[in-house]
Every structure is written in C-alpha cells, then in structure tokens.
UniProtKB/TrEMBL annotation:
The keyword Oxidoreductase applies. Belongs to the LDH/MDH superfamily. MDH type 2 family. This is Malate dehydrogenase. It comes from Microctonus aethiopoides. Its EC number is 1.1.1.37.
Amino acid sequence: MMEPINVVVTGAAGQIAYSLLYQLAVGSVFGPEQPVNLRLLDIKLMMDVLQGVVMELEDLALPLLREILPTADAAVAFKDADAAFLIGSMPRKQGMERKDLLTANVNIFKDQGEALDKFARKDVKVLVVGNPANTNALICSHYAPSIPKENFSAMTRLDQNRAQALVASRLGVQVDQIKNVIIWGNHSSTQYPDATYATVNLSKTGEGVISVPQAVNDNEWLNDEFVSTIQKRGASVIAARKMSSAMSAAKAAGDHMRDWFTGTKDGQWVSMGVVSDGSYGIPKGIVFSFPVTIKNKKFSIVQGLEINDFSRSKLNITAEELMEESEEARQVLKP
Ligand code: NAX
C-alpha cells in the first residue's frame, strides 16, 4: 500500500471545499490507490463549522482517508504538505472597494506563502482558487522563495470546462469529444477563451477529427458570443444561485490537481495559470493562464501556436489587467 500524502485545503469550512473534500477522500483526484491525510485550514471563527465537516468526513467511512486535521494554524496545516488547494479568501462584501478586497487577500496569501516556505515539502504543488486567483498565486510564490515558482498555479480549469461544455453543446456532441479549448490570461472577465486550436471528434458521423472553427462554421459566434458567455459565466451563476459556483469549481480544482499529479494524455492540453516565462510575448513574472502539457508532475507551456491579430488584442487586454493587479498588490505589500 502507498504511503499517505498530506493534502491541505484552505477555506475548508466553505462551499467549494465542501464539494472538493469528497473527491479527495474517495480517490478521484490522487487515484484509487493513494491514501490521503487531510489538513483542513480555516479561520478561528469557523472552527465549529469545520468540526461538522470533519464529522461528515469521518462518516464517509472511506478507506483512503487517513488523518483528518482541522486547524486555524497555518504552521500545522502546511507541515510536510505534498499538495495544497488554497481556496480560502475574503469574499467581496457590499460597499467594499476593489482595493480593500485586494489588501485583505494579498495579506492572506503572503502569510500562507511564508508558511508554505517554512513548513511544506519543497516539491509541494500549490493550486490557488481563491480570488483574485492569478495575483494571489503570484504573491504566494513570491513569499515562498525556497519552493520553485513552477510549483504554484492559479485555477482557470473551471473556465476551460465551461468553454469545452459550451462548444460541445453548440455542436451537439458529448463533452469529451472536444479537446484543447484554451483559456488565456486572468481568471476574470478579461480572460480569453479561445477555440482556434480546439478539435472535435466526429468519428461517429464519419467526419473524423476536425477543427472546432471548421465544425462550428461561424467565426462571429466564436469571437463574440462564445467569448463573452464564458467571461460572464461566473456572474450568471451568482445571479441565479445567489452564491458563486461551488460544485463546478470543486470539480475543476480536482481536475487541475489530478492532471498535475498524473499528467495529460497524448495530444491533450489543459489551461493553468502559471508564472509567465515570456511565451507568446506575455510579460515575464505575472501569473497568466496558458495551454500546458504535463509529464512527471512538470508542466510545459504549449509552444508555437500562431496568434492572429484578434487573439493578440485579447491577450494584451488580459495581460494588462494582470500587470495592474500585480502592481496594486506590490503597493499594498510595500513595507
Ligand atoms: P466561501 O465563503 O464559502 O468559503 C471561504 C472560506 O474561506 C470560509 O470558510 C472562510 O472562513 C475561509 N477563509 C477566509 N480567510 C481564510 C484564511 N485566511 N485562511 C483559511 N481560510 C480562510 O467561499 P467559496 O465559495 O468556497 O469560494 C472560495 C474562493 O474561491 C472565493 O475567493 C471565490 O471567489 C473563489 N472562486 C474561484 C474560482 C476560480 O475559478 N478560480 C471559481 C469559484 C470561486 O468563485
């Protein structure tokens, strides 16, 4: 039997964690042979609620789930961590300025970066879900200098899943017949969902694997309605549910970490917010969502895709927003 791995979930008393924890405990993220110790971090005020979550986890009676450790102490949570889902963050409240939200959150991710630096394993894989996810990931990695920058990522997988599902529905095919839709940039309304290089498997109809733009045959839809629907999807869910996406966000977090640990399939790309190395002319150092392939727990940004003028303008908008966010975060953190 394999040794258990230590998995941290922050914001563990919140709604995304509530859907994620079952996936971790049942083995659908780290595999059906991999036991896990769960380290559940939340703020002191939430410890009673978290105790209820712990009881439910116990009541799952799942053999892969070993230790369950609820705590409000980051030093305890991150000790020897192999993987961390950083979900907990301060939600925007009514009347709150963007700046106030950023101040609260960059400080949370600074503290957690420092705790990761001190206590986690150096090969820990960190997925930031809490918003603003890209900039939080940047801050977190900055304050954890002993851990390689490649071990930090921000979640845009929910956007990718949404985009893949929308293309599948438009073409009337199953979602797994669509591959390689890309999310570029920030997990915000400036993100650029791009189906230029996506393919659809139409073997059932005898047409084979063809490009999505060819199958859709409507560039106006792809450049306009498709992009804006995905950009606004999070807001549409909030408008309907009066709460932000949780089940789909948790599923996406599981997808992201599973692919990071087990690798992508041949010919398949996934989107992850990672520290830019300057690929596609994106300024170095910001956390930007790129298409990546993953092997042996290491991602590589897919290279050589041709970027047309339309795509370039979209990439520039989202890169500029990320530059501004990282500058604002720097101002907040100035000593
Ligand atoms: P909830 O408000 O249900 O839960 C958040 C939890 O985090 C609460 O229990 C809170 O006490 C805890 N928390 C706050 N500060 C903390 C700290 N310093 N340490 C540990 N825990 C702390 O929010 P939920 O719906 O679970 O969403 C969590 C975050 O995910 C939000 O920032 C949200 O905006 C973000 N999202 C990101 C998505 C993405 O695709 N990257 C999509 C879904 C979601 O909107």
